[in-house]
Amino acid sequence: MQPVLHVRAFQDNYIWVIRGISRTHAALVDPGDAAPVLAALPRLGIVPAAILCTHHHADHVGGISELLQHFPGLPVYGPAHENIDSLTQRLHDGDEVRLPELGLNFRVLDVPGHTRGHIAYVGHGWLFCGDTLFSAGCGRLFEGTPGQMLASLTRLAALPEDSAIFCGHEYTAANLRFAAVVEPDNREVRVPQQTVEELRARGQPTLPSTLAVEKRINPFLRTREPSVRRAAEQHAGRKLETALEVFTVIRRWKDDFRG
Ligand SMILES: [Zn+2]
After folding, report:
1. Residue of 6, 57, 81, 118 marked catalytic
2. What's the CA-to-centroid distance between 188 and ligand 1, angstroms?
3. CB-based contact 100:137 (threshold 8 Å)
């Protein structure tokens, strides 16, 4: 029995369905749209036990009110510092989310950058990081600063290497194309490219990734690598001294990248 399932929403969003030890109940992560969840749950024989939100963007929270109409009283967890209407439990850094009926217990990490109050959920070797860390990439800086995002990514990178990473979007293929431009000599980037294409051709998710893999392929976790710094310097046309300068350059570079 798979403890974590997924439901697709919109173009490329994933709504993670965490069963834990339960056969019949699950926590839903970032249900941006209710319709695909309401279609999938009966098929899976699952009833939601809780909703976990990572940040306030509509493609992550837009389905909550409709889900609450179908499942009134469902606890809705989310970041204390963001404006999300239907939250019942406002979470701060270091808080624990206990879902005993699923045998689950998550720790909350503040990971600002994509949005100001973005949080991640960590537990059981899993990381649900919304739009902060993607496979081979990271979230755009809509509200936070490059310094905040780099600190958040550094924090996530300190988790155990075998942590399974469940991101909010299927962006891996495009991210790998950018990673290959930043580090053309990094053979590790080419390894997953083929696997990812095969998975996508079969309509399978490329997630979860692991932190160990991301440390080898993700340029945003590799801002201290000489190869990434050199590429950023070449792109910027000047010398870069710090990891933050490197991060800032490659984040902006990726914003404009059409690969
Ligand atoms: Zn977002």
Report:
1. 57
2. 28
3. no
C-alpha 138 – ligand 1 centre gap (Å): 11
70 is catalytic: no
**113 C-alpha vs ligand 1 centroid, how far in Å?**
10
CB atoms within 10 A of CB 102: 19
59 noted as active-site residue: yes
Please write the tens of the pLDDT for every residue from 141-199.
999 999 999 999 999 999 999 999 999 999 999 999 999 999 999 999 998 888 999 99
Cα–ligand 1 centroid distance for 111 (angstroms): 12
Backbone region of residue 94 per phi and psi (left: phi > 0; alpha: psi in -120 to 50; beta: other values)? left
- pLDDT tens-digit series, residues 193-250: 889 999 999 999 999 999 999 999 999 999 999 999 999 999 999 999 999 999 999 9
DSSP 8-state secondary structure symbol assigned to residue 252: H
Residue type, 126: W
The per-residue pLDDT for range 189-209, each reduced to its tens digit, is: 998 888 999 999 999 999 999
pLDDT of residue 133: 98
Specify the 3-state DSSP secondary structure of 210.
Answer: strand
Catalytic residue at 56?
no
Residues near ion ligand 1 (Cβ under 5 Å):
57, 131
162 is catalytic: no
